[in-house]
């Protein structure tokens, strides 16, 4: 990367270096929703939602304010502690962005990294990365699921720990490992998670031991899982099982949260959210649950092109163990 494309580590302020090299900033207040919008007519932008009920929104950063056209090709990999990890679709490199200060940090892509064709039936390459904050070491990590060519077989996981001596390391994956990146890749403070290509198993990469291992089989048949079905809520992985009722024109999503506890502290799936709504005859106008984070306070967030919606939870006798949302479409 040329130095004029993004400011390198030595050019950023001491506070920014400390954020990356030392520890996470102290949380002084409740978390707010941060939305990253890709490929608007004027490029990409990051917003913070100050008040969901009143719809107060602030723009934190926009690629339109940067003269370099490369920023319009950025897609978000993930966010931790207010920092954004972005993937450059034009070059295959990675940048960390502080949307408050506008400062960026260049991170080279993994060794032997090659861009893949972005065809209609190909998963976007940025979906194979995840950005994580490792609680045990208080360091940021970027995880890359290195799929084998155009297949979904995975031989290694590549990981980079940010810091002065940052470099990519290859961690062998067990024989037969695979990933369907269309389902999504998410991280919490302990591991990075993805779904196997056969839609049967939740897999993980432990950020402490740096090992790949199966977690649990999924709580519903593989046919019910679709694009971006792997999400996060309350800092834990969550999968959405979708069901269409053609005669009624309805669609439901049962959200299963992976929780720790019970006998021997094993992780188990618990159905915690139930979302139902009408299916529009115009597919682009259908509201979709946002991802990877979709819960903010007492609301579930949905979106359709150009709009963001917040739906309040309601009580339900039929689903007493779930937080229920009825999506009402307004056209």
From TrEMBL:
Ranges of residues in domain F-box associated beta-propeller type: 72-275
Domain of life: Eukaryota
InterPro entries in UniProt: F-box-assoc_dom_typ3, F-box-assoc_interact_dom
A Pfam family per the record: FBA_3
NCBIfam families named in the record: F_box_assoc_1
PANTHER family assigned to the protein according to its UniProt record, in alphabetical order: BNAA05G37150D PROTEIN-RELATED, OS07G0196600 PROTEIN
Name of the molecule in the record: F-box associated beta-propeller type 3 domain-containing protein
Source organism per UniProt: Oryza meyeriana var. granulata
